[in-house]
Amino acid sequence: MKPGKEESLMRFHPWIFSGAIRSIEGNPSEGEVVEVYGSTGKFLAVGHYQIGSITIRILAFEPTLVDRAFWDMRIGQAYRIRLALGLAGREGSNTFRLIHGEGDGLPGLVVDVYGHTAIVQAHSAGMHHARHSIAEAIQSTLGSELHTVYYKSETTLPYKANLGGEDGFLIGSTVEDVALENGLRFSVDWQKGQKTGFFVDQRDNRSLLEGYAEGRNVLNMFCYTGAFSVYAMRGGARLVHSVDSSAKALSQAAHNVGMNFPDDARHETFADDAFRYLDRADALYDLIVLDPPAFAKHKDAVRNALQGYRKLNAAAIGKIRAGGILFTFSCSQVISRDAFRLTVFSAAAQAGRRVRILHQLAQPADHPVNIYHPEGEYLKGLVLYVE
Fold first, then answer.
1. Looking at the structure, do residues 138 and 282 belong to the same domain, yes or no?
2. What does pTM read for this prediction?
3. Where would you tag: which of 62, 184, 186, 195 has the fewest CB atoms within 10 A of its CB?
4. Does position 181 have pLDDT exceeding 80, yes or no?
């Protein structure tokens, strides 16, 4: 590394950017494990090499052989944490995130578990090359509870690496598509759905919403699988409207509601653009959920994203009934918690309503944030009371 560029590694940050590298010995290929040395020749770390802005993703800050025993150790550690926190092996729930990238010391790797199925998603060349060892380590860790490991990384791998990472089964071939979360059943399209098929990260926030739903008219915008709608139904909502621009998403939402509350007339779906729907909506709702997809996926898009969040929240705050509750979220990693809160503040001022913050929300414990990698804190949310 260049002189003075070792400081981030001394603070255990798990990324090395291309501009910090002075020289490379040999000709490492994409995804190969490399050793990192400081400008004085001192050993610093071991990580996956990749061409691009983030050139090395750190796996260990001590001399380490990245072999099958390494994967067993790291994945086993992550699973024991989930067990200790009551997030795995819990009655009434069989869905949790097993590996959350940098938060579990495995940058570039995400693993979600749905019952007897684990979905592996690689975001780096190194994790792609190690996928078979990772799958075997997951099977070894979960034992007889695991029947299937499915690899789903076609859309997440760096396209310039030309890795040819096709989705497919790494272990088993069973298509099990029903997940259990807090006693509720959800159909998970982990082969073709967004991310790994289901947004596990909103589990705690869905439970919180359930406690506010009784007797309320609920609007679930950007509903996707309809999970917030299902929780609102169990919470005793008077009516629940699920809105999404995708007809496929609405079909899945209706199916999930039907699995838990068959023939329940309280629920309806609407295929529409969120801004258009809110613009035309009557002042019917006293509980609204805004959980949009990431408005900004890179820093260049932050300004436009903040304008989008402000416009969306102003529309919802303007339409919600007096005494209404608004759950509003951003899952954009490049949008800071302070920036999101300020944007919602601006939206409230624009709408001219008196608003109180009841809760400040984040991702759950199975999506941990490495304290040395604050960039891992991507999900932020507010629960607002609107007078």
1. no
2. 0.94
3. 62
4. yes
